[in-house]
Structure formats: structure tokens, C-alpha cells
Specification:
Strand order of the largest sheet: 1-2
């Protein structure tokens, strides 16, 4: 059984998403080259891909936002479908992930009620919280 429930934006129906610890298979070198050639060596925004700085491959939409197909044990659309993977320069991929993907996934977790469930309170062994000292007044009573 899948580990989470995703909400479709178009009509609000709840559908099963991919299991929590599920990961897709890695792309082969041939598949990566096919993606870069299909994009003509450029990002979707028009910037040139720079292999020296690092080229990363991004799933669009993010895997956590896709529906889960129980028979195929994969997402819909499939996780390694080349039409849904784009090549980005490393800085661009970091910005897209931080500004678009992470907030959307966090919102899904909040809507599902799963936010913060696995984070235990952090305790430092052997240390107690010290209270603030009282203010000492140099003046006497008036």
C-alpha cells in the first residue's frame, strides 16, 4: 500500500501517491544524452547547458506529487519517462527545487496531516534549561 495520499488540484479528489521510501531507477547514459539532445543543449529557459558546472536531471512534476500505479509499481506518468525529465544546470536545479518543489511537497504534507510527525524533540543529555537571572536594581525603595 502506498504511504501517502495526494490531492489532485483540478477536482480535489484524493489519490494514492508513491510510497515514502520508494526511489526510481537511475537513468542510463543513453537516456541522459537523449534528454540533452532533445533539448538542443539548452535549458527550458534558453540558457546553455554547462557540463563543467554540472548538469542535473529534474523530474517535472516532482515524483512525490505524482499518482501511484499499484499494478506497475511506478508513478503516473512513469518515473523514468523521458518526456517528463528535463536537464538543468546545477544552480538552476537547486533554485527550482527550493522555490517550487519543496514548498509544494510541504503543503501536501500539511494537508495530509503528516508534517513534523517523525521529528522527535531534541534533548541534550546532562543539560538543564537555565532560567534567566533576575534584574538587580541598584536603587533602594522610595
Amino acid at each position: 500500500m502506498a504511504g501517502r495520499i495526494a490531492t489532485l488540484a483540478d477536482h480535489g479528489a484524493q489519490v494514492l501517491g508513491p510510497p515514502v521510501k520508494w526511489r526510481p531507477r537511475q537513468l542510463t547514459t543513453k537516456e541522459k544524452l537523449e534528454i540533452v539532445v532533445r533539448q538542443l543543449g539548452k535549458e527550458p529557459g534558453g540558457a546553455r547547458l554547462n557540463p563543467l558546472d554540472g548538469v542535473q536531471f529534474d523530474h517535472d512534476p516532482a515524483l512525490q506529487r505524482r499518482r501511484w500505479d499499484e499494478q506497475a509499481k511506478d508513478t503516473i506518468p512513469p518515473s523514468c519517462a523521458l518526456d517528463f525529465i528535463i536537464a538543468l544546470n546545477k544552480p538552476t536545479h537547486g533554485i527550482k527545487t527550493a522555490k517550487v518543489d519543496v514548498p509544494e511537497i510541504a503543503k501536501l504534507k500539511r494537508l495530509e496531516g503528516r508534517a513534523g510527525q517523525k521529528k522527535p524533540k531534541r534533548k541534550i543529555p546532562g543539560q538543564k534549561l537555565r532560567s534567566r537571572p533576575l534584574l538587580k536594581l541598584n536603587r533602594g525603595f522610595r
